[in-house]
Amino acid sequence: MFLNRLVGLFSHDMGIDLGTANTLVCLVGQGIVLSEPSVVAVKRGTSQVLDNGNAVGNVAKEMMGKTPGSIQVIRPMRDGVITDFEITRAMLEYFIRKVHGRSRMVSPRVVIAVPSGITPVEKQAVIDSARRAGARKVYLIDEPKAAGIGVGLPILEPVGNMIVDIGGGTTEVAVISLGGIVTRQSVRIAGDDMNDAIINYMKRTYNLLIGEPSAEAVKIEIGSAAPLEKELTRAVKGRDLIAGIPRSATITSEEVREALSEPIQVILDAVKRTLETTDPELSADLIDRGMTLCGGGALLRGIDRLIAKETGLTVRIAEDPLTAVARGTGAVLEELDRVKDMLDSDEE
Prior knowledge:
Elements: H1 2-9, E1 14-18, E2 22-27, E3 31-37, E4 40-43, H2 50-53, H3 58-61, E5 71-74, E6 77-78, E7 81-82, H4 85-99, E8 109-114, H5 120-132, E9 137-142, H6 143-150, E10 161-166, E11 171-177, E12 180-187, H7 191-206, E13 208-209, H8 212-222, E14 233-240, E15 246-252, H9 253-276, H10 280-289, E16 291-294, H11 303-311, E17 315-317, H12 324-334, H13 336-339, E18 344-345
Parallel strand pairs: 1-8, 8-9, 10-16, 16-17
Antiparallel strand pairs: 1-2, 2-3, 4-5, 6-7, 9-18, 10-11, 11-12, 13-14, 14-15
Helix pairs in contact: 4-5, 6-12, 7-8, 7-9, 9-11
């Protein structure tokens, strides 16, 4: 008991949104203190992180598509789950140390948000990675619950709350009441798939090969889910697949919308399936309350209008949708004793 209190003096409990695209860390009383890409640069064929273990996050992302054969840039999370255990551990350790001023003398309690559809084995992989990275206790919370808390929905009350979290690797759609998920859909189609769709469109239509960072920039700058008042254009640079030389092409927001239509339809279908399996009394609540969008995908132009048109419900975009899940994990830490029943932990 004394040892636990002593350890607590050298740690700050943290909430983590361990995302496919980005990892965010929230500290109680301080809010979001870290937001960096979930990317690690390693010596090819090993789990050895470059630059004395510091080639993580922003540093690693700057290397994407620009490395020699001896270096590999890895995203150890895919579709919201761990694909490389050792590199995920190294990434978490780096982020924990960075938040704590590089000190290794830390042992925080950690609340981590995970997709609601992952398996018990995948959950255990997250717990093990966090423990090996230095956490003394690990709690897992389903992303829809964390998002609901983060955007201020009364998810503990007997009322229907609908959340749509469009992240990098997964889209989480859930109706929550009394602290539990009543019905949900978790699909492994999200922001990354939108990037891939743009890459494939450029190959198919322009014989132009572009990288993921370029595709993401196109999505952010001119991407949309519904027609725009003023359509946009953008120059895209890459390698000509026929001539093999650098080349650029100008594309329009209409073309990007066409490219994104397939992943967006999958997300729409997940929303509709969730509504179809919602109990009548909760459905009645949703007529009055609508749904809330969060995650990076909520920033895609017109996606709220498209979902509203397809469902007939009011659709709101959360304030600061990128940080909703992380803020939710921080709020959980503040009320840990009250909400423990909503969490999985390494104590079980």
